[in-house]
Design brief:
Mean pLDDT of chain B: 93
CATH class of the largest domain in chain B: Alpha Beta
Strand order of the largest sheet of chain B: 1-7-6-5-4-2-3
Helix content of chain A: 25-40%
Radius of gyration of chain A: 27 Å
Strand order of the largest sheet of chain A: 1-7-6-5-4-2-3
Order of helices and strands of chain B: HHHHHHHEHEHEHEHEEEEEHHEEHEEH
Low-confidence stretches of chain A: 210-234, 362-408
Structural class of chain B: alpha/beta
Largest sheet of chain A: 7 strands, mixed
Mean pLDDT of chain A: 86
CATH architecture of the largest domain in chain A: 3-Layer(aba) Sandwich
Shape of chain B: globular
CATH architecture of the largest domain in chain B: 3-Layer(aba) Sandwich
Order of helices and strands of chain A: HHHHHHEHEHEHEHEEEEHEHEHHEEHH
Distance between the termini of chain A: 45 Å
Structural class of chain A: alpha/beta
Number of helices of chain B: 15
Number of strands of chain B: 13
Largest sheet of chain B: 7 strands, mixed
Largest interface: A-B, 221 and 215 residues
Shape of chain A: globular
Strand content of chain A: 5-15%
CATH topology of the largest domain in chain A: Aspartate Aminotransferase, domain 2
Strand content of chain B: 5-15%
Radius of gyration of chain B: 26 Å
CATH superfamily of the largest domain in chain A: Type I PLP-dependent aspartate aminotransferase-like (Major domain)
Helix content of chain B: 25-40%
Oligomer: heterodimer
Number of domains of chain B: 3
CATH superfamily of the largest domain in chain B: Type I PLP-dependent aspartate aminotransferase-like (Major domain)
Chain lengths: 586, 477
């Protein structure tokens, strides 16, 4: 009998904190101040008109009343009900649930860094601006694009930013183009972002199947978009008509002068690299249209090929996917957008500008406002590199900048935030995007270095193909693309489980009891009962074998428990119909 | 091949993996997948720095951190949308739990009950603080949240117009925005609506009091047609407490048909204020959008922050973002999950209420832990402390005779002063104060260069305030 990680254990019960209240208790330390007696005595109405004050009767403040230990135990117990990357294999396809390096958390929690006010004078925060500048250069190197903006706070915000850039580009060219072509296998955010950016998204069919969902049946699963026709036992014909790639002839039907761009996820959500992408890009460019790439799946080729080599003009990346920053139970993320030279002028503000300035005094120098530009600049710069001479960790030669030698020259790079750019789309976020996420991603790249960067995608692709082949050997009829190598993830349809009377939803709930987080299910929507598995490079062979063994066992024995699972979790299968019919949200 | 510590595949295992899938090496693997597209060769990776061992990496960032001690470890009197509140150790302790920070969105609620129940508590607590019916499980930041509020309002407006056949359905609609709304928020709103047939009209501020000019608002509402919303910030960008009672009456009485009245959208960058002053819900606000970063989050040089989004219950199906709800499981226990998902992009695609997917869930969780620790009493006391310290500083600075009062209306924890010494503008003053180890404030955006926006939080002490006063005397006298 195989030992799976899901084993018996003690599960704590825990009530809502508000139900544990005891009048007057609180768990926070209020700073004590040496107020004078008159200051101490004053209350709010001594400072402001009483008509503005909060009235407890009319606006009751319903916060819990608990001490620090009660609050700490409460949230610690809650945390024990989560499955997470650190406790279990989390093969959530398209989400790149890789390990989150602990040193990056330590770095992001360094006290002076996390306490920085965003409107701090630039002269005081040179190292911070430099990190943003250098990370920008690194992303340019890895993608072949020319400049990134970090202001979008997540992937969808990146898409929106990219689409606004497209809009502005055509506006400045005085062309009216309203259509964004989107393959039907795309992430749901793509059409949604197109819509709010003022475009009309048009779907291109990439993969037709002979089954059809009942369009009237909108009783969807709240969390995964499951159509309720997925009950098992239906006569579903899994025969496919297309091969999972963008069909050039199909695409041609949609190309006209209204098309602003194509939004293409590569590798696509079938886990396949778009073989025709160069041809697609050529077609678009010949039509005067742009190529936007959703880089959510960049983990599939980071360090091994560049998007500029296959015609991409605009790209967003997800730092919380490829660049190892934690997913945070749903965020924060970061969705930097990169563009080619001709689109730079449209990037959102602010952006980091850099100039070389003469330094009067090598250790310190003053800017015109009298502020110190880099405090002990040399000291921290020289400590970091074995050579000890470079002002920068990055070899700037590749970007047409001289390598700066502190020993010979009294110059320094000065970084500043600029708010003016003639055709900028404007501002996307309150400040400069999610800096603490950028910081972690930068640290991740420094850890990897040029020696290891290409290994990430190599192993991610190897692992996914290992799982794909192992599963193909076990349930061949479920692999929609048995002839192809996949990239970082593989997709199955539900035929094998269906024949055992197990729906994809049942499968997902069953595998929880084996101690695994379920894969992404029912996506992409054009694979019936899709099961999308992304192992990432940070999972071992043992873990993958264990997972595959669990899948095989579910096929054999799962039916009996199918509708009752999961059984070992704190909470069993949840009634979604009830929750949506009569929403209780506080 | 060298092993790398985040990748648990030994050389032997890698070899076996290749063998198993019938591929020779990396080159063949990628060539088979990506075809003619060139592979990056080693030379082309020259732009990447050398790999760093963990100790060197730690030292590198630790040195950067040390070099920032004169700006990351000083009293902060700067606000302008983000305020330096203290984060209790218990918050960091809870937030360091991988069970919270390493999973993703709770697509599988049975294995995400911790996150979901905490989100439910976040929604309950913030809804109560704001006096609003329903709060979602977070947006990115205050600015984006406000932009989404505008989009939501326009959706509701179009919907109501459609139902009302007597009115012509003009696609072009307007929002009226108080000039006292944070200028960064306004910039983001502009970016969002630029291509959407939504136009902005501004209302003036009362140049003496510093709040939204009610007469001008009345006029603007009368002059314009197809107005879907009026946006006001509480407390406003200048720290002034807006008279929402008057504003609400004006905004909601435009039409006799209530469904076509403009929405009152209240935004806020400092929801701590609602521990003392009446919350937006009390004034019948339709939508609230704001910045919740102060609840247990660090300033992080401006991100990640915490977008708060709330609305009246009747608008719940038009709300963007994720909403956590309560249900029962098959063992008849209380259970939590995301509800009303048919509003969302992964189901509705372009018909979704928003494109948001990943949000700032962990920041919301921080807020939940923080507000729990605060509890009712602590929240009120900290809110009052902010107000008190700001007023003490305000009074002391005016007493020096070096500053003049800019606005007369009541303020919460932030205020604008004019520097009397005309040879020193606000930027210069702030730079000089930094040398004294104080972040004195920020220049007031789009205003005269001798005006400075100053905020105080519970993190500054009476001693810090006295030092502020002393240093400014030294610089300005």
């Amino acid at each position: 009998m195989k030992k799976f990680p899901g084993s018996k254990g003690l599960i704590f019960n825990e009530d809502l904190l508000i139900n544990q209240s005891s009048k007057g208790l609180y768990g926070i330390s209020i700073p004590l101040n040496n107020f004078s007696l008159s200051q101490f005595k004053k209350t709010a109405k001594d400072y402001i008109d009483p008509k503005f004050l909060r009235n407890e009767e009319k606006s009751p403040l319903l916060l819990p009343e608990v001490s620090e230990p009660t609050a700490v135990r409460h949230f610690t117990r809650l945390s024990s009900w989560n499955i997470c990357v650190d406790t279990a294999f989390y093969p959530l396809g398209s989400c790149t649930m890789k390990y989150n390096p602990k040193i990056n958390e330590v770095i992001a929690s360094l006290n002076n860094i996390r306490n920085l006010h965003p409107l701090m004078t630039a002269g005081y925060i040179q190292p911070i601006l430099k990190i943003m500048y250098e990370f920008n250069r690194l992303l340019c190197g890895l993608t072949g694009l020319d400049e990134f903006t970090f202001t979008p706070q997540a992937g969808a915000a990146g898409e929106f930013t990219g689409l606004k850039i497209i809009k502005k580009y055509f506006e400045v060219k005085n062309e009216k183009r309203n259509i964004i072509l989107i393959p039907d296998s795309s992430h749901g955010t793509n059409p949604a972002s197109s819509h709010i950016a003022g475009f009309t998204p048009v779907e291109i069919k990439t993969f037709l199947q002979d089954y059809s969902e009942n369009p009237n049946d909108l009783n969807q699963h709240a969390n995964s978009g499951i159509l309720s026709s997925d009950k098992g036992g239906n006569n579903i014909n899994y025969k496919t008509n297309k091969n999972g790639y963008i069909d050039i002839n199909e695409l041609k039907k949609y190309i006209n002068k209204d098309v602003a761009a194509i939004m293409i996820t590569n590798p696509n959500t079938f886990g396949l690299f778009e073989k025709n992408i160069i041809e697609v890009a050529d077609l678009m460019h010949k039509n005067g249209s742009l190529v936007y790439m959703d880089g959510a799946n960049f983990n599939a080729f980071i360090g091994n090929c560049r998007v500029s080599d296959f015609g991409v003009d605009i790209l967003h990346l997800n730092l919380h996917k490829t660049f190892s920053t934690p997913h945070g139970g749903g965020g924060p993320g970061s969705g930097p957008v990169g563009v080619k030279d001709f689109l730079k002028e449209f990037l959102p503000v602010p952006y980091i500008a850099v100039e070389r300035r003469k330094v009067k005094n090598q250790a310190k120098f003053q800017n015109e406002d009298g502020c110190c530009c880099i405090k002990d600049g040399n000291k921290y710069n020289n400590n970091i590199n074995s050579s000890g001479k470079s002002a920068s960790l990055i070899n700037n030669k590749n970007y047409g900048e001289d390598k700066f030698d502190y020993e010979k020259e009294n110059y320094c790079y000065y970084y500043d935030l600029e708010n003016e750019r003639e055709h900028s789309i404007g501002r996307i976020s309150s400040f400069y995007g999610n800096f603490a996420v950028i910081l972690r991603a930068y640290a991740y790249l420094l850890s990897l270095g040029r020696q290891n960067i290409s290994k990430v995608s190599e192993i991610a692709v190897l692992n996914a193909n290992y799982i794909k082949k192992k599963l193909k050997d076990a349930f061949i009829e479920s692999d929609p693309f048995p002839e192809d190598l996949c990239m970082h993830e593989c997709v199955l349809n539900d035929s094998v489980f269906q024949s055992e009377g197990i729906s994809t939803l049942d499968f997902a709930k069953l595998i929880i009891d084996y101690g695994f987080h379920p894969p992404t299910i029912y996506f992409p929507k054009n694979i019936h009962g899709a099961i999308m598995i992304e192992p990432t490079e940070t999972e071992s062979l043992q873990t993958m074998d264990n997972f595959i063994a669990a899948m095989k066992e579910i096929k054999k024995k799962g039916k009996k428990y199918a509708s009752k699972s999961p059984k070992k979790t704190k909470t069993g299968r949840i009634n979604e119909v009830l929750a949506n019919k009569n929403p209780v949200f506080k | 091949m060298n092993n790398f510590r985040y990748i648990p595949a030994s050389d032997e295992e890698v070899k076996n993996l290749y063998k198993f899938i019938g591929i020779k090496d990396k080159k063949e693997l990628f060539n088979k997948i990506i075809g003619d597209i060139p592979l990056i060769n080693e030379k082309e990776l020259d732009f990447m720095p050398d790999q760093m061992d963990e100790l060197s990496l730690y030292k590198y960032f630790s040195n950067i951190n040390d070099s920032l001690r004169d700006c990351g470890n000083i009293p902060v009197f700067a606000g302008g949308g983000i305020y330096d509140h203290y984060v209790p150790s218990a918050v960091d302790a809870i937030m360091s739990r991988a069970e919270f920070y390493t999973p993703y969105t709770p697509y599988q609620p049975e294995v995400s009950q911790g996150t979901l129940m905490a989100m439910f508590e976040f929604q309950s607590m913030t809804a109560s603080i704001l006096g609003m019916d329903v709060v979602n499980a977070s947006m990115y930041d205050g600015a984006e949240s406000l932009a989404e509020a505008v989009l939501m309002s326009s959706r509701i407006y179009h919907q109501n117009k459609q139902n009302d056949s007597s009115k012509s359905n003009n696609k072009k609609i307007k929002i009226i925005v108080s000039k006292a709304v944070n200028p960064y928020y306004i910039e983001v709103v502009k970016t969002f609506i630029e291509d959407l047939d939504i136009f902005i009209e501004f209302t003036d501020i009362d140049s003496i009091k510093g709040n939204t000019d009610a007469n001008d608002l009345t006029e603007k509402l009368a002059q314009n047609k197809n107005i879907c919303a009026f946006i006001v910030q509480q407390p406003n960008y200048f720290g002034i407490i807006e008279d929402l009672e008057t504003i609400e009456k004006i905004v909601h009485s435009k039409n006799c048909d209530a469904s076509l009245n403009p929405h009152l959208i209240v935004c806020s960058a400092e929801p701590f204020s609602f521990g003392t002053i009446a919350p937006p819900g009390f004034y019948n606000a339709d939508i609230f959008a704001g910045e919740g970063n102060g609840f247990g989050n660090y300033m992080n040089f401006g991100g990640p922050l915490l977008g708060l989004f709330a609305a009246k219950k009747e608008f719940i199906r038009q709300m963007p973002g994720r909403i956590t709800g309560k249900s029962k499981d098959n063992r008849n226990q209380d259970a939590y999950l995301f509800i009303l998902a048919t509003r969302e992009q992964h189901i509705r695609r372009q018909a979704a209420t928003s494109n948001i997917c990943t949000n700032n869930s962990l920041n919301a969780l921080r807020a939940a832990v923080y507000l729990s620790l605060c509890s009712k009493q602590g929240f009120k006391e900290i809110s009052l402390l902010n107000l008190k310290l700001a007023h003490i500083l305000h009074e002391k600075l005016l007493n020096t005779g070096l500053f003049s009062l800019k606005f007369t209306a009541d303020f919460y924890n932030e205020f604008v002063l004019e520097i009397n010494n005309k040879s020193i503008n606000s930027t210069k003053f702030i730079n000089e104060m930094l040398k004294e180890g104080i972040l004195a404030g920020i220049p007031v955006k789009n205003c005269s260069s001798d005006e400075i926006l100053i905020a105080a939080t519970e993190k500054v002490s009476i001693e810090d305030i006295d030092k502020y006063v002393e240093s400014s005397v030294k610089i300005l006298a």
